[in-house]
Structure formats: C-alpha cells, structure tokens
C-alpha cells in the first residue's frame, strides 16, 4: 500500500470511526514493535524520534511515526509542529510520518490511535513510533497502546520531587535523560538511578542522549530492540496486546455511549445515563446495530 | 466528523517564518488543524508531506522573491503525484504584477503584506467549502 492510500485511510479512520472496522477487517493482522515516546513539552521528543528513525533506517528498518499534538479546547483547531524536527526523512520512502490532533482526548493521544496503529502494523512497517502530546504527570494512555514506553526527560524540569510522583514516571520501560550536554544532566541521571533502585527496577533502563547530535541514540535503539525481543519471546507481549484490546474496547464503548448521551435532554446526570443506555438498548433490539 | 487539515509550508531559502506562524496561529484559532513544515523546504518535501498528512489545502509562505518559480514547481509536482486537486494559496512579499501570474499557475488565492487575518481565514474557509461542494463530499 502506498503512502497516499495509507494517509487517506488514516483520515477516514479519524473522521468516520464507524468505518474503521471494515477498513481493518480487509487487511491482514500483523504485529510489529510499537514504541511510545512521552514526556513534558520541550524535552526533545520529536528531535529524539528524528534520530531514532535515522538509526532504524541505517539498519534497514521501515518506520511509521504518529505524532500527536493537542487540539484547542476552545476552537478545536490545532497546531501540529512535530514534523519540523523530522525534515530529513520527508523524502525517504521507508518513512511515513503523520501528525494527529488530540481532538479532545485527555490521555495524551487521540481516540483513533488504536485503529491507526493497527492499520500501520497491518500495512507492513517494521516499527511504529508514537509521540504523545507534551504531557504533565497523569497522561498515561500511551502505556496501553505501545509495547514499549520511552519516557524522555531533560534537565531543568524540577527537582527529585518530580521523580517521586505517581503517573507518568511509573509507566516507562526506558528512561531517557535527553539534552545530556546541558548542566544538571548528571544529577538528573543520579536521581533517576536512585529512584529506580528504590523502586526495585532495573537501572540499566536509563539512557543518556543528546538528540541534537545523536549521542546515545544507538544505545537507546539497542535497548528497545533487546527489550522487544524479550517481550516477544515470553508471554508478556501477548498479555500486553490483550491489555491494548481491552483499552481499545473501553474507548469504543465510551464513544458509543457518548453518542447516545448527546441525544438525551435531562438535567439529572444519573437519569441522562439511564436514558442513553435505554435508547441504545432499544436500538440494538430492533436490529439496527449500536454502531461504534 | 470532517475536520479540515491545512499545510503551511515554507519553500525555498528564505529564513523568515513569522508570517507563516502568525497565519498558522490564526487558522488554528479558526478551528483548523494546521500542520507546519518548518523552514527551507524543497517542493519535493512539501508535496510528500501533503500526501502523508492528507491535507485539504496548502499555504505557501514565500518572502524570497522566488514565488513564481517555487509555486510553479510545487503545483507541477502535486499534479505529477496525483494530488493536483488540493488548492494552493500563497502569502508573502508578492509584487501586485505577479498576482495574476500566480493565479495563472494555478494558485487559488494570494495574500500580500497587510492582509487582515480575518480575511485570510474567511477566504480559506470559502476555498475549502467550495472544494467540498464541488467534489460532493
């Protein structure tokens, strides 16, 4: 499938989610490593992904990237600027980059992400990379979509207190100290190692990188490859994919219910849900399908 | 739900993108999803981006004086790649004499210095809705 067809299908999945099922049903089921990159705004996620693409290409792998940026809660518009860092891959036929707006989703991604990732896996890419919006502390949906989560940190984002907070800090498989040419990177690294030791985690999951010049990127990619192999060799990957399916299902359920909720007119929130569920059940009973 | 996606691109060698960013910001605030390519893009890079991002409209920002050559190249390449149906508008330092030439090349709108943002937003909307109604989608 060429890039144009893939791009059109993504648009269709995003704009008319009801059609995703038919689109995906026609494609072969296929699994490839799905790697999520998350972290605060400005830590260098896009620049790091740019280098990771370069490394994966140098070992002959094809790569699809989905980069999510936030939609405005006021205008619903979005400024999608992650591609700017990935310019050198624009003409490479082995790289497909797609920007997505979050469209109201609060977990750092977009509701269509599950279907879009499945599509990119099906059409044969060797790697799918996901970049979340710049996250704070609680946007953890990437954990459910990606097989491996890379948390990108950089010096200058607060002291050790930030590492102790629940949420994003807990969901990563690999921790990157990016901008390791800047002052403060050593203490961030040491604190991170301390934090992981205390949590009983493997400290070899910490990598120092400088995305601007590519330092440390080879080591990061090696870690990703090793980790994915170990996931795929055990039952772990199967479990994770099961988990992904569960969250995909929940997202669909929420969207379906929301659609019925929007047709209900009641001042009582409890009654609204009851009415929505009732109209959904009635519609299903008459065989018109609930839709998703 | 249909959401319009607009590519704002900077072809050529000029290094000033304040204008492109201001227009992108205004379009964002008007509810569009705006993809920005960054500076110094070749026509090839812009066309590949337009394909992968499946955009509905392309805006080229050109301040270098090479607007005729660059716009022509982008539009030719778009046709070659089978996306000649996507409308293209141009903004930047465009001498009035060149406006008809750009329109002849196939550009749908030209916005020179001093164009109010509200006018750009309104005309962009008209172009997008015009395309949607003629293609029946």
UniProtKB/TrEMBL annotation, chain A:
Keywords: Chaperone, GTP-binding, Hydrolase, Nucleotide-binding. Pfam families: MeaB (PF03308). It comes from the Bacteria. GO terms for molecular function: GTP binding; GTPase activity. InterPro entries: GTPase/Isobutyryl-CoA_mutase (IPR052040), GTPase_ArgK (IPR005129), P-loop_NTPase (IPR027417). Belongs to the SIMIBI class G3E GTPase family. ArgK/MeaB subfamily. This is Methylmalonyl Co-A mutase-associated GTPase MeaB. The lineage of its organism: Bacteria, Thermotogati, Thermotogota, Thermotogae, Thermotogales.
UniProtKB/TrEMBL annotation, chain B:
InterPro entries: Acid_CoA_mut_C, Cobalamin-bd, Cobalamin-bd_sf. CDD domains: MM_CoA_mut_B12_BD (cd02071). SUPFAM superfamilies: Cobalamin (vitamin B12)-binding domain. Its cofactor is adenosylcob(III)alamin. GO terms for molecular function: cobalamin binding; isomerase activity; metal ion binding. It comes from the Bacteria. Residues 3-131 form the B12-binding domain. Keywords: Cobalamin, Cobalt, Isomerase, Metal-binding. NCBIfam families: acid_CoA_mut_C (TIGR00640). This is Cobalamin B12-binding domain-containing protein. It comes from Pseudothermotoga hypogea. The lineage of its organism: Bacteria, Thermotogati, Thermotogota, Thermotogae, Thermotogales.
């Amino acid at each position: 499938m060429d890039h144009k067809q893939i791009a059109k299908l993504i648009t269709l999945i995003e704009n008319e989610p009801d059609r995703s099922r038919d689109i995906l049903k026609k494609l072969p089921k296929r699994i490839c490593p799905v790697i999520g990159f998350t972290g605060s705004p400005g830590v260098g996620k896009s620049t790091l992904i740019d280098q990771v693409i370069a490394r994966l290409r140098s070992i002959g792998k094809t790569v699809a990237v989905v980069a999510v940026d936030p939609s405005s809660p006021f205008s619903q518009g979005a400024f999608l600027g992650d591609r700017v860092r990935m310019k050198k891959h624009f003409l490479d036929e082995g790289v497909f980059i797609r920007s997505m707006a979050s469209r109201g989703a609060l977990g750092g991604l977009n509701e269509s992400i599950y279907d879009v990732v499945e599509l990119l896996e099906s059409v044969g890419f060797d790697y799918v990379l996901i970049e979340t919006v710049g996250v704070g502390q609680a946007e953890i949906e990437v954990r459910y979509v990606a097989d491996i989560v890379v948390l990108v940190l950089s010096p200058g984002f607060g002291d050790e207190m930030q590492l102790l907070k629940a949420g994003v800090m807990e969901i990563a498989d690999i921790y990157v100290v990016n901008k390791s040419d800047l002052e403060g990177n050593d203490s961030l690294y040491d604190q991170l190692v301390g934090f992981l030791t205390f949590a009983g985690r493997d400290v070899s999951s910490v990598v120092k990188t400088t995305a601007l010049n590519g330092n440390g990127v080879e080591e990061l990619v090696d870690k990703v490859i090793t980790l994915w192999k170990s996931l795929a060799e055990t039952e772990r990957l199967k479990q994770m994919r099961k988990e992904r399916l569960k969250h995909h299902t929940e997202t669909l359920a929420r969207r379906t219910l929301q659609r019925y909720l929007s047709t209900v007119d009641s001042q009582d929130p409890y009654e609204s849900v009851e009415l929505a569920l009732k109209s959904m059940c009635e519609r299903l009973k008459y065989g018109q399908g609930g839709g998703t | 739900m249909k959401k319009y996606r607009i590519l704002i691109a900077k072809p050529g060698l000029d290094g000033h993108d304040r204008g492109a960013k201001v227009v992108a910001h205004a379009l964002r605030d008007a509810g569009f999803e705006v993809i920005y390519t960054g500076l110094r893009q070749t026509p090839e890079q812009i066309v590949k981006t337009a394909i992968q991002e499946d955009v509905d409209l392309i805006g080229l920002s050109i301040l270098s004086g090479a607007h005729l050559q660059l716009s022509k190249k982008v539009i030719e390449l778009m046709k070659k790649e089978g996306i000649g149906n996507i409308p293209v508008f141009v903004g930047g330092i465009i001498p009035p004499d060149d406006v008809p030439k750009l329109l002849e090349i196939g550009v749908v709108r030209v916005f020179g210095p001093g164009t109010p943002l509200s006018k750009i937003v309104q005309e962009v909307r008209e172009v997008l809705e015009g395309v949607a109604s003629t293609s029946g989608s």
